[in-house]
Amino acid sequence: MHLLAAATPVDAITFVIASAIVLLSALGVVLARNPIHSALMLVLTLFGVAVLFVAQQANFLAAVQVIVYAGAIVVLFLFVIMLLGVDRTESIAVEPLRAQRPLVAIVVLVGMAEFALLSRSNHWVTGQPAASGSVRAVTQGNPPASDVTVLARSIFTRYLLPFEATSILLVIAVVGAVTLARKSERRPTEEEVTK
Amino acid sequence: MTVGVSQYLTVAAILFTIGAVGLLIRRNVLVMFMCVELMLNAVNLTFVTFARALDDVGGQVAVFFVLVVAAAEVVVGLGIIVAIFRRRAGATADDLHILKG
Description:
The structure holds two protein chains of two kinds. Chain A is mainly alpha-helical. Chain A is built from nine helices and no strands. In chain A, helix 2 packs antiparallel against helix 3 and helix 3 packs antiparallel against helix 4. By secondary structure, chain B is mainly alpha-helical. Chain B has one domain: Helix Hairpins (Orthogonal Bundle). Helix content of chain B is 76%, strand content 0%. Chain B has three helices and no strands. The longest helix of chain B is centred in the C-terminal third of the chain and has 30 residues. The radius of gyration of chain B is 17 Å and the shape is elongated. The chains are: A mainly alpha, B mainly alpha. The interface between A and B is large, with 96 and 74 residues.
């Protein structure tokens, strides 16, 4: 396979370090007691994923990942945590849903066994290549193309309608956020609610 | 060691599992939200891996759209969390069972 032929020791080392960062800090997100620590671990995870993007010739997406995710989304999380003062501990002793923990353990074990089985196979890839632009042109093209060019050509031709739809989605999100977070002048009465 | 498609997909799958388990075992709404972000990132990593393997930039376009949707989702979700906090103290998801119709 062409991917294996292109792999160098540097690729392997980068992959191992980046995936170790991703997986360990993802565990940190889940296990940290303090939500602020979770948010900072999330930054580390997102950075590791960005490194894995660069290792696969998705340079533009790696930059967007760091700027939008680590820069904007996690900062938004931290804002909310700091504003609301979420430092109280979780009450894990109370168990409203019985049997949810054994269920989770079973799901995890089955899932992990599945992944272990699937990772033994190397025949993941089928289908028609390059329906909407070639990624390989970024490194092996003559002359080499910029991955921004390839991505932009695809977004603004083949995926133009979804791209325009995202603008509507963003407007809806902005309006929704303003409506939700605005302090209401008065509480609606019971009558109005039932109406 | 050679780094192929399956290694990347395995990392993405484990990341997705960590996110899913975190979503199930944590009670803090904000941390649950972060676990959703972990799962989205695992899917993004899968998309980029297949984009490279299939030599088709459509996977990277999908990641682009996932980023936009994730940003919108976080904004609305945090708006909801702020609105809930204004009514009641505490961010434990199980306390919100009163929401059921």
